[in-house]
Amino acid sequence: MGMTAAETLKRYFGYDSFRGGQKQAVEALLAGKDLLCVMPTGAGKSLCYQIPALMLEGITLVVSPLISLMKDQVSALVSAGIPAAFLNSSLSFAQYQKALANLRVGKYKIIYVAPERLMLPEFLSLCVQLRISLVAVDEAHCISQWGQDFRPDYLKISDFVAQLPSRPVLGAFTATATPQVAQDIENRLKLEAPVVVRTGFDRPNLFFSVQMPDRKDAALLRFVEEHPDQSGIVYCATRKSVEQVSDLLTFHGYSVTRYHAGLTQEERKKNQEDFSFDRVSIVVATNAFGMGIDKSNVSWVLHYNMPKSLEAYYQEAGRAGRDGEPAECVLLYSPQDVVIAKRLIEMPGENEELSEEDRAIVREADYQKLYRMTDYATGTGCLRAAILRYFGEKDVPPRCGNCSNCLGQYEAVDITTQAQMILSCVYRSGQRYGAGVITDLLRGIRKPRYEEQRLTFLSTFGLMKEAPAHEIRLMISALLAQNLLCQSEGQYPVLRLTHASEAVLRGEKQVSMKKPQKAGKEKSAGKKARKQPAPETLESPAALDLFSALRQLRFRIATTENVPAYIVFSDATLRDMASRQPRTPDEMLLISGVGRMKMEKYGELFLREIAAFAGREQTGSAPED
Ligand code: ADP
Ligand code: MG
Predict the structure, then answer these.
(1) Which of 294, 288, 287 is nearest to 309 (CA)?
(2) Of the residues 38, 77, 294, which should be mutated to test ligand 1's pocket, given the most ligand atoms within 8 Å of the CB?
């Protein structure tokens, strides 16, 4: 006690200064004010409640949705010398009783709980006897159906708080806050006149790109080939494609693991750890993978399929570059992705625990989000600006200069004539068919069914014989994105004209669309992307060698202690060590990310490694002197 927030930050976490928004958030909670904190992934929300937790008297309770997330956060706290624990279903009965007993005698400063535990009688009766000064709700968007991870158990939080003898301060933290979600969080947690801390959503170190390759497999292989030795995540829409893509990468000799809800719990755990612990460099996964992973050195996230919403996309893509290093977020788009996404939205049983009414709201919201996501994938404007505007950011610069659209990695091609052919084919076939049939008809594909329905006699039949199917599909999706066509909902969506279609058919409106560039050009553009200035780069080859030596040391320690490597030290911390090469414990404490506890635990080992390296350098360069 008696330490300032800045001192607490340095002592426990080893950081010299707060990042944007953190100070405000910490101050609000310390002043006893409720807080709604909206910051993008990687901004450092955890510290916003962990610092007050250390400074306030009593206990801080953190509500967190996922077991793996709690576990890593608690390991990180314990390794920083902070007494913390989690209570969830992964504990055995004996472990759980032990944790409760410790809690009773005031052994912990911070405890993490799963929301379903809050209203259990045993837990509740304990909590009313404790002094709970702060309740922090992490991933607070889980409380809203408008967020993409609705968890009904989150609705219990305010009931729980109401049961406590004195009301603790409440802090809600999320990376996903469209205005609707923010409102839901405020209402449902019953926040009282909360201080709202909302930092910009921009993540300047992320490079965004969209590709529309003819063959996604080839595009993926090219991408991973260009990113050797980097840690990355490939997101796929379905379990089946996770299997296929991970087989493909394995076949080509990459070090890969996979993750989806169809695997056993043990296998999921093992695979996630293999990735977290840097035992494999690539994980291929469905969206089941991620909320529980705080790995800081993910250099790229590639979406093999377009996700269902920009929230989901930004959250998943945002798992790249948490350490602030330049990282790439790539989306491989094809019109088929829209079909897959719709199928997922319509899938029954996805939200079993919801009422029919809630389900209808969720579904409608899902469709709206999908359309916005499609606009992102097919649009020609700045990708970063599109994301930031979606999150309600004001004064967004129209061009960021750091995304594939800004770098002009596409051509805007005039497709007025083709658009007329497509629209007139839709019209002449009676606005009764989906994109697949329309594409077939334009290409002049004969099927018995088409003959029977006399579709082969249409004047538009075979008008686009030369065009490959995927190109027509891309044009159709561009027309959809520009609202020149619309599509009915449901499993067999039917294309129809819109008000705006007429002007095109009459030749009064030009249509253009973005066309992906060929492989060679993409390649050079990719290189350009990686030349983005890095916040902290290692200048000399010697520093780079030391960096890898330190990484190896970290890997050995992490393996012995059975924790993810980044919990020992982050890449950013090792990089700082490698370039500043501290010689004494005091110098070591100046490194960003080295707090007292870490210094005590690992300082000696790392100092020795650095000294040994300096020695080798000297003898190595002696003959030249
Ligand atoms: P979020 O929950 O917002 O996604 P985290 O709390 O997991 O982000 O923090 C992301 C990373 O940033 C972590 O590695 C954390 O240690 C680091 N970090 C947080 N605050 C600071 C700071 N003030 N200075 C340096 N690094 C920080
Ligand atoms: Mg977090």
Answers:
(1) 287
(2) 294
